């Protein structure tokens, strides 16, 4: 039987990265296809000390593989903090983490007009304009479909990705290292 190891790193809003320690915690990861994957981390915070370490807006990286400590990043997301009370009245932190790529493309609005351009070139241009330096687009290929004329008028970036994937007859995803 193969043993897997997991490690969670959380970077707060000031850029400080901490590895989640030995505090009582559990986590559940739901990886999804063409929609936002989510990670829920439950932390016992009865002492009210971890809330400052795990802020809303912080970034979470989950590593998992057979080495100890693990080095393969399998998930990256942004924290939404949801404090809750357990059955004994203790305060628990529910760190709901949405996959960063989907968190971004669901919240970015595109307004662009394109003519006579390959689908892949159009996507690379949009990502460069609306999410510069965040994602690596070198894996996006031009493909064979040329768009004669297309206007995106205040559309969510996810809708743009979905439309392009449908037109090109392909899928898209972003890995944990932010390669689209």
Question: Can you walk through the features of this model?
Answer:
- With 180 residues, the chain is of the alpha+beta class.
- It is built from three helices and nine strands.
- A hairpin with a 5-residue loop joins strand 1 and strand 2.
- The longest helix is centred in the last third of the chain and has 12 residues.
- The two termini are 33 Å apart.
N- and C-termini, Cα separation: 33 Å
Radius of gyration: 19 Å
Approximately what portion of the residues adopt beta-strand conformation?
Answer: 35-45%
- Could you name the ranges where pLDDT drops below 50 across 5 or more consecutive residues? none
Number of strands: 9
List strands and helices in order, with pairings.
Layout: E1 5-11, E2 17-19, E3 25-30, E4 38-44, E5 59-65, E6 73-85, E7 91-99, H1 100-105, E8 109-118, H2 119-130, E9 146-156, H3 157-168
Antiparallel strand pairs: 1-2, 1-5, 3-4, 4-7, 5-6, 6-7, 8-9
Characteristic terms for this protein:
180 residues; two-stranded antiparallel sheet; 9 strands
What's a quick, concise take on this entry?
This protein is of the alpha+beta class and 180 residues long. It has three helices and nine strands; from the N terminus they run E-E-E-E-E-E-E-H-E-H-E-H.
């Amino acid at each position: 039987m193969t043993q897997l190891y997991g490690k969670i790193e959380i970077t707060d809003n000031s850029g400080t990265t901490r590895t989640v320690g030995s505090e009582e915690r559990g986590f559940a990861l739901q990886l999804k296809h063409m929609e936002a994957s989510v990670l829920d981390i439950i932390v016992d915070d009865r002492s009210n000390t971890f809330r400052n370490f795990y802020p809303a807006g912080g970034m979470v990286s989950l590593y998992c593989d057979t080495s100890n400590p693990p080095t393969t990043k399998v998930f990256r997301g942004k924290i939404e903090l949801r404090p809750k009370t357990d059955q004994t009245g203790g305060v628990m932190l529910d760190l709901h983490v949405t996959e960063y790529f989907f968190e971004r493309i669901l919240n970015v609005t595109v307004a662009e007009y394109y003519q006579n351009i390959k689908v892949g070139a159009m996507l690379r241009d949009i990502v460069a304009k609306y999410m510069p330096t965040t994602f690596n687009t070198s894996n996006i290929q031009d493909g064979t479909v040329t768009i004669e004329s297309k206007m995106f008028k205040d559309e969510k970036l996810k809708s743009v990705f979905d439309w392009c994937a449908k037109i090109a007859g392909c899928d898209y995803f972003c890995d944990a290292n932010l390669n689209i």
